[in-house]
Specification:
Strand content: under 5%
Radius of gyration: 17 Å
Structural class: mainly alpha
Number of strands: 0
Distance between the termini: 47 Å
Largest sheet: none
Length: about 170
């Protein structure tokens, strides 16, 4: 897949980014289970895009931002989870996470519990590094208490306690 994309630069410049604007199964991480006849060396879209970014053929910062922005466009829970996993696959550095502190904090207002669950550990790390303050988080935390999952409000309360100490 990587080689095919590199052979068509227009795909890398424009078309690849459309994947972040539509609900697609391209970012599915269960290809081997869904398609057991695929060769063992099959390269998925997430793998190809991550490798292209590592090689400098795709803008890594744009990929990180696109994967977070896509979370606001999609409604399908599976697709949302795939974008969360893709973002995690990119393994943002501390500096890259710090640069997106506001994006992660805003995810506390997301309607999907798994997206909030994806954001909470990153937010906790940002609070621990002093990159997010309690004042920045409090307006966004109310939405967490409207979610069905009990673990998210508990994690939010821990963030408040941590922020109050800091």
């Amino acid at each position: 897949l990587r080689d095919r994309l590199l052979a068509k630069p227009d795909l890398l410049e424009t078309e690849v980014w459309r994947l972040f604007e539509v609900e697609t199964s391209a970012f599915a991480f269960d290809w081997q289970r869904r398609f057991p006849n695929l060769p063992a060396d099959h390269e998925s879209w997430p793998q190809a895009l991550a490798r292209l970014a590592a090689a400098g053929a795709l803008d890594r910062q744009r990929l990180l931002d696109a994967s977070l922005d896509a979370l606001w466009v999609m409604d399908n829970g599976t697709v949302l989870g795939n974008f969360c996993r893709f973002h995690a696959l990119l393994a943002p550095s501390v500096d890259e996470e710090d640069a997106r502190a506001g994006h992660y904090a805003e995810l506390l207002r997301h309607r999907a519990g798994p997206v909030v669950g994806f954001a909470l550990p990153r937010i906790a790390a940002l609070v621990g590094r002093g990159r997010l303050t309690l004042e920045e988080l409090l307006p966004r935390l109310a939405a967490v208490f409207e979610l069905k999952a009990k673990s998210h409000p508990l994690a939010a309360l821990k963030l408040v306690a941590r922020g109050a100490k800091g």
